[in-house]
Amino acid sequence: MSEKFDIIFLNKNDFESYYNEKEIELERLNDLSKVNILIGANNSGKSRFIRNFLKCKTCFYENRYHMQNIIVKFNTLINSNHFGAHNLHQDVTYQQYQNDNREILFKNIEYSNNQVKILKLIDFNINVLNGLDLYYQIVNIRNDVKDKRESFEKFEVFLSENFFNNKKIEIVAKFNIYHKHDGKDDSEIINVYIDGESKDLHELGDGIQALFILMYKIYTCENESLIFIDEPEINLHPGMQRLFLEQITTNKFLKEKNLTYFISTHSNHFLDLTIEKDDISIFLFNKVNKDKFVAKNVNHGDNSALQYLGVTNSSVFLANCSIWVEGISDRNYLKAFLKAYCKHIEKTYPKEDIEFAFIEYAGSNIDHYNFDEDELKEKINAFSINNKIFLISDYDGEYKNNKHQIYEEIAKENENFDYQTTKDYKEIENVLPFKVWAKTLIYFCDKRKLKIEDEKERNKNEILESLKGKEESTYKESYIGKLLNEIKTDIPELNKIWDKAEGTLMNKAEVSYKVLELTEKEELTWEDFKDNDKIVSITREIYDFIQKSNYK
Questions:
Q1: Where are the alpha helices (DSSP H) in 378-452?
Q2: Can you name the residues that pair with 370 across neighbouring β-strands?
Q3: 459 by DSSP, 3-state: which?
Q4: How confident is the model over 70-92, as pLDDT tens digits?
Q5: Distance between CA 52 and CA 50 in Å, rounded?
Q6: Helices (DSSP H) in 221-354: which residue ranges?
């Protein structure tokens, strides 16, 4: 679950020109996350807001997740009968707290011992990086304490894995202290050694240089830092934007640094990547007049921000090949399979939106596309969207049989078109091995009954036992609700996430996101997925198709 928090500004005059969507002076910013995207037209107040933030010496943040924990502990303490309703020592009457709507938790409590910490003070130490002094930054960090040097080495690993096929990377700012001291050398050259071969940083291209400057400071900054970035999309291909966002949201090393990001952007692609993530907050800025700006929090699932910037999935025109899937759940499962497979074979996950892109064709809408370049153009020419296509479809209807045969024939004749189907399985959910369901279903049980860790472990074991008594092949050709309905008979705590008695999933996306999330956390691995031959064949074919489209 995402930990949302609010920022409270001690001096409202610091933001005197800013108002919330109710046109009330901005005294706090609600529902922030670890990654916060600020969008708006030119002169809408985004950059000015960041500048005001940096001028603000202190502010508080309020974390509702921690507040709820405090409330639970408080209520537990009251109910434990360790003391009565009136505490003589501090002359305070305790009352049980039922909600978090700003009512008083305690009455007449002296906070002399600072026993309850709801607000945390943040003290700012501002460091601005624009790339102009990058040379000296690298010289310094190469000669800094061990922790700093190790963070820089992690940055070199990031470059190696994402741009140089895991080749050894060393970054050197050439420096001769004697020549510098004597004024004999005023050059500031940054060399990148790739398996021992030296290249100047400027030779690597504008995109890598831009991402280099962005990620360098993030990898090497102090833990708990606030990171403010203005328009990171400049000189960044949409695929690089995706890579940047994936790094700051999923990279284990960076997440352990516990950083908080504020990113102002005009990039519709950034929004396209973030609008469905509940661990990222989006704020829309509008200019009312020269002295009035409105900051609105865009809730998860609110597409107004996308509409504001006119988002279109333009990345599919820029990628070297495309993977066509029926919907978002198919995309998430295939990403999970591919990420787990790449980890297993010790290869870098292909760069999404550069080396490949997903296109969602929404089931029967595939009938509107023409994949045969020799046919008359009565339908949309799929190859005008992307000239290398891998098409994947479910095998869940008799009407599709003829289509499957047609696509298979086209794939034999066109080397730029590959085709796969979930043949023998009703839907893509049916290919998930029991091992995957065993690790996933616990997250779809009644959370009110799983607050105690022992109860959670008991349910995990019961799910495992329920699956052990079943045969996977029994559920290949029926909707996945048949399996889940039988599991619920054994585990009443399982929420009904399927339609009708034994139908398909009601929220396919939610389950697929959880599978992808567990894969990115390495709680699900290729060992879990490889039990199904269909997953193995589809994943290997997709991986080979991407490699062929980019490197052959």
A1: 401-413, 434-440
A2: 381
A3: helix
A4: 666 666 665 654 444 444 444 55
A5: 5
A6: 238-250, 252-256, 268-274, 304-309, 328-344
> Which residue intervals of 237-299 are DSSP H helices?
238-250, 252-256, 268-274
**pLDDT tens digits for range 323-353:** 988 888 899 999 999 999 999 999 989 888 8
Neighbouring C-alpha atoms within 13 Å toward the C-beta of 107: 10
- Element holding 289 (H helix, E strand): strand 280-289
CA gap 288, 311 in Å, rounded: 23
As a whole number of angstroms, the distance between CA 42 and CA 52 comes to: 17
Q: Find where tokens 């504020």 sit.
A: 262
CA distance 157 to 164: 10
- In this structure, what DSSP letter does residue 552 have? -
The answer to whether the beta carbons of residues 441 and 448 sit under 8 Å apart is no
Q: How far apart are CA 20 and CA 12, in angstroms?
A: 13
DSSP 529-549: HTTSHHHHHHHHHHHHHHHHH
- Say if strands 5-9 and 28-32 run parallel, antiparallel, or are unpaired: antiparallel
pTM, two decimals, is: 0.60
CA distance 239 to 321: 13
Alpha-carbon distances, residue 544 vs 220, 336, 337 (angstroms): 36, 16, 14
* 3-state SS assignment for residue 298: strand
Domain edges within the chain: 128-220, 313-552
